[in-house]
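Hey,
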Amino acid sequence: MNARIAAGAAADLLRDGGVVAYPTEAVWGLGCDPRSEAATLRLLALKQRDVAKGLILIAADEAQLAPFVDLDALDETRRATVRESWPGPNTWIVPASLDAPSWITGEHQGIAVRVTAHPGVIALCRAFAGAVVSTSANRAGMPAAAAFEALDPAILAGVDALLEGETGGLARPSAIRDARTGAVLRV
């Protein structure tokens, strides 16, 4: 079984190309360094998820998302709406920056991002000094794990470590909205 480790040790693993499972606001997530194609492809293989679908990035603050997004491409009202929803369980599809890696955006022009309010994830992103991939810790098409005990043994076997902590107790994963239109893509 993989050890539960503190944020600093998990950040070191991410910098070394590792994949870490961690609790989020509602479910357990899988994370890696979004700048590492090898780590991201390893995470996607573990999830059995197609790279074309794209991935969410999670951060401790908006500045950590800056290398990946172009919030200035949004009008002032939309940008304010996004910013007012953070930190919290609100994921937005925003215009991707020219530097956003294709293994993160997939086949999309936008990128899904969130500034978290979960203390464990905040600590992880701060220790890592950047945004982290955030996707549910389950095989594609399978239910997300709201509790550690519900994690798939194959997922547990494929990660390098587990960030200590518990999920935030929300009943559902974060809402996903399109920042350009306000359309709700996931409730």
